[in-house]
Sequence to fold (211 residues):
Amino acid sequence: MSQTATASLGEREALSEIFLLFSALFDGPPPTQIVPKLLTETFPELSKAVGLTPLREAIDPADFATEYEPLFLIPDATNPLSLYSNHYATSEKSGGKDLAAELVVLAAALQIPWRKTEFVPGRAYPVTPDHLSVEFALLSVLVLRNPDTEIAGKSVFIWADRMAREATQTLEKLHQILQALPRRYPAYDTVIALALAFMQTYVQVEFSTSP
Fold:
């Protein structure tokens, strides 16, 4: 049995809120009014929880907005980052169209509208549901469900395992690419490093053994 299955409702709700935070951060830069709290409270608390040493680079509140578009929205051969898991899939079985098709079914079953009705400049506009923001949104809902409950032919546990591993693999690739870029991006470097450390811990705790 997974740790989430035996966790209290409050603990599962807290985990869901963390997934929602990452979902929002990968959907677009956070509103400027909440950035100070992210930098002084939320990020340090999460870093401490996963044993991650805070990065030394200073983050200006404006960095999130100035970094998101050039990193994730503007195609650039010298900056090959993508927030879509299928971009990094080594085979169709491990992701790609197979993953995207499965997530369409899961998103519909969970009533999560990954298709947006209008374009918002400077924010993500997922065309397939394997976007990190959607994967974290799906996890935020799954973690609140009984792991034995069946959704679209698979248990919540199996769905959450798949989703968590795909998101972790994507974050690993993003982290590797970001570290190799000549220019530093302190805001999203921090977000990606923190999300990766959190997901690695989550996968190890939740899915290292079968339910």
User: Anything to note?
Assistant: The longest helix spans residues 156-180.
